[in-house]
Amino acid sequence: MSKKGLWPKAIFYDSKTTLFDWGIKWIEASKRILEHYGSSINPEEFKKTWNMFHTIENHRGAFGQYKEFQTNNQTALMNTFNYYKIPGSPDDVKYMADLWKEVQPFPDVVSELKKQKEITKVIICSNIETVYLQMMVEKLGDAQPDFLGDMQKAQASKPSPRAYYWVLNQVGLEVKDVIYCARPQWDVQGAIALGMKSIWLNRGNEELQGVRPDHEAKDMYEVTSIIKDYIRL
Questions:
Q1: pLDDT less than 50: residues of the chain
Q2: CATH homologous superfamily of domain 10-21+104-232?
Q3: Most buried of 4, 86, 145, 231 (most Cβ within 10 A)?
Q4: Which residues lie below 8 Å from residue 92, measured CB to CB, with a gap of 6+?
């Protein structure tokens, strides 16, 4: 029986790396780039550096002038090329773009989203453009979210408060109504700063840096248990 009148009124998710195994395709894109330039750099190390620069660019856009994911990604890739002294091109983001359609949800996602949708609403919002998010979300089958948003529609990216508030306004909810769940620590920290209850989905067994979330989960099974515990209160 649906209990959608109880708290939380919705669970609010990040997408890539939280629900979808995007990281493995990022490593594959890095491998293809390095092979193209004949570099012996470890693809996982290249990806880690690329990710670092991308996070920097995303945060600049979040708290400055808005830029789309692809623009941030090109800048981040060029910074990575410069770091490793590889004569690459911004157009090399094509190696990642070609892989979006292959990104799959983590094995625990579809079954647990179905369970969660029986007791509350499911919201997903991502710091990527609409077309890429739709490629991923279509893989959820009948576990589609009740609301799907992205930075392109919001014209804002997390962890800017504007991005979180845009989603809440779209679904007619307030900060107090939802529990936020993401894998990136900075994403969770942004939600905490707004006063949201939070779950850090620590899939990689990382060490926490910063403010402690309300809950920490290692997988979606634990996330479902946390939500059910709140519903039973």
A1: 1-2
A2: HAD superfamily/HAD-like (3.40.50.1000)
A3: 145
A4: 33, 36, 77, 81
